[in-house]
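anyone seen this seq b4? input:
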Amino acid sequence: MSSRHLLPRLFRVRPTITTTLHPPHASCIPSSARTFTSRRSYKSPQATKARYRTGPFSWKAGLLFLLSGGLLIQYFRHERERLERKRIAEQAKGVGKPKVGGQFHLRDMFGKEVDEGTYKGRYVLVYFGFTHCPDICPEELDKMAEMLDLVQKQVGNVVTPLFITCDPARDTPPVLREYLSEFHPKIIGLTGTYEQIKSVCKAYRVYFSTPPVIKPGQDYLVDHSIYFYLMDPEGDFVEALGRQHTPQAAADLITGHIKDWKKPLKDDADLYATVPTARAVTTREHAAAK
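predicted toks r here
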């Protein structure tokens, strides 16, 4: 084919198709899109302001913030009390010779020879008094019994209570056994010679005014310090509890120290294994026998 026949084909104009686009009918738009468009179209400025009126925090966020703050305050308060108990315990131990407590050799109310090692591995609550005390000792022993019950409810039976007499001439093992049974079954009475009692009172910094020599039938008065001494399972002094402490406050302090202790504690069953089955001699019978 010649070139003159090709030129008309190259420059031949092809017909074009013109399409006009019209917006789609509402029926063709999905319902979700129509709803969204409607919402955006009809939201007023007042509605927008009301939505963000509370700012970035909701009432749920505020409640969560308050609860978290309360828990943090409680945690830091607990830690502060724990560190204070630890400071008191470490300060009480001193350096070298202990400030309160130490070696002693006595006899318990069951007639058994005991020393400071007998009660190691347990917390010990020590009180000094005498069975002929008219009012102070009974009040403090009632307080001691209440403290023991409160501590037992919180941490179990892990405290051994000791009552060391300041009047060894009259407070024999049978007398102590009968006297202390009126207050609490766990309280153990300790006695000894005058020199032994004098030595243990000196170790615990306890003042007492018992005469060293007692004549038969002699009547006398005994004066002594009024404190409870808490000793840890290693025999170290922890804290002194005075008359200003209520039973609940004292029990809380003791419980706090026990919870801070990380080592295992011994059972106290062996301390009561030597309880005699015979009837205890009463104070009146003991005095008549003399």
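The longest helix spans residues 59-93. The first strand starts at residue 105 and ends at 108. kinda curious what u guys think
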